Amino acid sequence: MTTYLYPQNLKATANMWLWSLRDFAIMSIAMLLSVLILANTRMVIPLAVTLCFGFLTIRLEDTTVMDFIRYAVKYFISTQQEFYWQRDAAPNSHTKNLFDRLCVPANKLKMEEK
Asked: Which of 27, 12, 14 is nearest to 57 (CA)?
């Protein structure tokens, strides 16, 4: 069996600078069309969209900026965060004192209020 040194035994995706080859091709064609539209109509919107696409598809270690934003939105906004609280089976003295101070029995509170 032949082992290749680059790119990762020929299983990695092809990259051109900071973009995958597919994204780079899309960005090149979009940039050409955006410059033509800018020269003819003085409209900057297609160029701005192309630059935003170029920024969002920058790829570092198989993760794009768009993937990172998607993960952040999923973590902070769209998924339910679950927290489980439990008391340690054998708490140390500091956590036991803290727990005892926070969890005062109801009858003690009534005595302190009087």
From this structure: 27
